Amino acid sequence: xxxxxxxxxxxxxxxxxxxxxxxxxxxxxxxxxxxxxxxxxxxxxxxxxxxxxxxxxxxxxxxxxxxxxxxxxxxxxxxxxxxxxxxxxxxxxxxxxxxxxxxxxxxxxxxxxxxxxxxxxxxxxxxxxxxxxxxxxxxxxxxxxxxxxxxxxxxxxxxxxxxxxxxxxxxxxxxxxxxxxxxxxxxxxxxxxxxxxxxxxxxxxxxxxxxxxxxxxxxxxxxxxxxxxxxxxxxxxxxxxxxxxxxxxxxxxxxxxxxxxxxxxxxxxxxxxxxxxxxxxxxxxxxxxxxxxxxxxxxxxxxxxxxxxxxxxxxxxxxxxxxxxxxxxxxxxxxxxxxxxxxxxxxxxxxxxxxxxxxxxxxxxxxxxxxxxxxxxxxxxxxxxxxxxxxxxxxxxxxxxxxxxxxxxxxxxxxxxxxxxxxxxxxxxxxxxxxxxxxxxxxxxxxxxxxxxxxxxxxxxxxxxxxxxxxxxxxx
Length: 476
Known about the structure:
Helix content: 25-40%
Strand order of the largest sheet: 5-6-1-7-8
Shape: globular
Distance between the termini: 79 Å
Radius of gyration: 39 Å
CATH class of the largest domain: Alpha Beta
Strand content: 15-25%
Oligomer: single chain
CATH architecture of the largest domain: 2-Layer Sandwich
Order of helices and strands: EHEEHHEHEEHEHEHHHHHEHEEHEHH
CATH superfamily of the largest domain: Reverse transcriptase/Diguanylate cyclase domain
């Protein structure tokens, strides 16, 4: 497994666009007077203590000579795509985890990992004029920490361009002297708790009884015990679905006005809903993120009763969370809304869905019943032609219900006796006939219907008396 990380990626792209920046302390990010944040810092700036995610105003205080460059994300995406094309040319097993990082599974290439890493590094440097560092190990976890260790060994202010290899079987020895905070899942709070237990290195953590870690930290403790021994069986994931969609805003000045903050939340919720709808997904939980001026960042989450992509539902949930966490008059530096638990809209089952063998058998019976109806009464029956509509609908429903009810159901259907002669017309009566549906027995003459509303006609003359109209046909 190889992890490739581009060194000071945003800054490297900016140096290509403006060579005068090379060797100078500069940072890519927002303006310091606008509450901007450092997105990337050159290694010359890092020598002064400037780091990513640092407020730009603080970075300028650390390095008064710092040049601030506005981000150009289209240029970064284009450069990243060129790098990923080189990785895919090497192996199809590539998992991109960010714009400047990717894992590669090179186990099937038949070459030593360090040889492959060196060739890949040279390709990216020669063809794209970009520097990268690589970690080579038996799994993702060890490769990640190897990359961090390799970059950390570079002298201050220099671009790392490192390759760090951990041979198979040496994971525990490689991990043992490293601080516990170097392990995935050990943040400041967990590191503080581990230090209180006397655990300061990954080796200390690996030697601690796993059962006690599980008792103290739950599932997280079990994960820590496994990682401390260098165990990680996660495969390469070549396609990754988004886990959440969010929108957040760093305010230009601290805001304590409720109306202003709620309006910001409404706008963010609308943006999130629009993204959900464009992607054709629904979310099951709404999350609120808010940050005070001292960088304390409380979060709250609300699980929805049903998945949604509707603006009003997201707004209502976000405002409810906001009311829970925000003390009246508390200044706010950053605020954001997100939706997680994404998934495709649920599909309503149709009449013909057959997810089980029993339903497949039932569907076969329904199809057989439909075929029998068409064979008996003609293909036009389903349109209501050739049979009084009320009879045809009743017959179709009866046959379908019988098919759907299973083998035990018995449904009586009318039989078709051979046609017989029509009854004789009484002498002196007007000759009338009743049309018969195809394939059905003759129907008796219906009783006279109530007289119809008189229609405007020419008045009868004495020479041609009006003959009474025959009784109209009644519906059967």
